[in-house]
Every structure is written in structure tokens, then in C-alpha cells.
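thought: fold this chain, then report.
action: predict
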Amino acid sequence: MNIIVYIKQTFDTEAKIVLDGSGKIDANGVNLIINPYDEFAIEEGIRLKEKFGGEVTVVSIGGARAQEAIRTALAMGADKGVLVTDPALESADEWGIAETLAKAAAKVPCDILITGRIAIDDGASQLGIRLAEILNVPSISSILKLDIEGTHVTAVREIDGGTETIEADLPVILTAQKGLNDPRYPSVAGIMKAKKKPLQTFSLADLGLSAGDLAPKMSVQKYTLPEARQAGRKIPGDAAPAAQELARLLHEEAKIL
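observation:
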């Protein structure tokens, strides 16, 4: 069984977001990690390989630093890496990203494609369903449990207020939710082996695409940081008058009473 796992390199969840002079997010000096939900996808891909045989190929889009994320996935146990890198992709929207990754999938014949449910940076949660539409295969999102018998897939997915069970046939696209598994840490031996595992790099031209083919259908006009939180206020005095003053402030200023 051959598996493609799509991953994205994102800011560390503890990173402090800073805007540069042009109003864009400044990535200088920021620690980058594999999108946490994609770690569940990597782990599930490796478990499927261990159970059924085959290979796990990790695919990502990004600049040179994205190789770090791919090498980490290889150290966890994936077999091959594919990086699609091109300056035109810096302005690509979710549609363009999905079109590009669908082309990359054609380079790697596979039975299952897995990615994280959502990316923690943009929160778009669109890749899985867009890929399914482009590749004309079924998709199951936010899976918490996965069973495969032959070419038949049974997955339990999270829905509002509960879960539901969905069945499909291979090939299929899955998006991984927290709770699906516990991602392993790269071992020292895995890190050493990862240095020798193949990592291919493709440009848009290699995939038969051009910048014009990926003209964004949506664009981000600007980024703004949230307003700084105001300091709390302490109401002095005895309990009774302080409570009356608090009620007045909540009613007249905060307007929540």
C-alpha cells in the first residue's frame, strides 16, 4: 500500500507574530514546525505501511526551509520526500495549492492520501476536500479511527456533538484529527537514516504548471495584529460598595449587564 502524506510547515504555536514594514508576517528568527495536525497524518501513514507494507511519501510546498519539516517526517519513518518549490507559490491561495499538490500526486502513484484536518496558521481546512474534487476520489474528514480491509475503508469521524462512521473504497483522501493516534518522536537512528532518504524537488514547470495557471481566486489584502489587552481594574473599598460599583461599570461601560 502506497501512501501520500501532505504536510505544511507552520510557525511554532509559541511563536510571537510580528508584522514587517510592508504589513506582512515577519518569519525572521521564528521557529518553524510541522503543522501539529499533520503529525497525526504522518503517524497514520507510517502505521498503515507497517501493517500492509508499501511506502510513505511526504509531500509539501515551501521554500528551502520546508526541507526541515520533510526530513523530520522521514526521521519518523516516512520513506520519501517531495518538495514543490517555486516563487509563484508564495502568493497562491487554497485553490492554487490544491491544484499544485494534485499534480504532485500524479508523480507518486498511491492508494491513500492523508493530511491534517486543519493548518494552525491560516485555519482554512480546505486541502482535503479540494484534492478530492480535483482527483475525483472520495474523502473523509476529521477521522478518529481507521480500519482497512482489502480495498474497503471504514473510518470514524468527528462531527458536532458526536461521531459518525463512513465507508469508502480506495483510493481515498483522509484528514486526520487529534485523537487518531499518538505521533512518534524521531529516534536518533531515524534522524541518521533520514539524511540518506530520497527527497525530490519539483518546480511548477516540472508539474506542467505556470504562474498564470495559478492566478489566485482570493487574495489577502492586509494583516493586522489584535489590539493589546487592557490592564485589569481593581475596585477599592468594602465589599458592598465595591460590588455596587462593579455592577455599575459592567452595565454602563462594559455593557454586559
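thought: worth noting. The helical segments are 36-52, 66-76, 94-105, 127-135, 188-194, 239-252.
final: C-alpha cells above.
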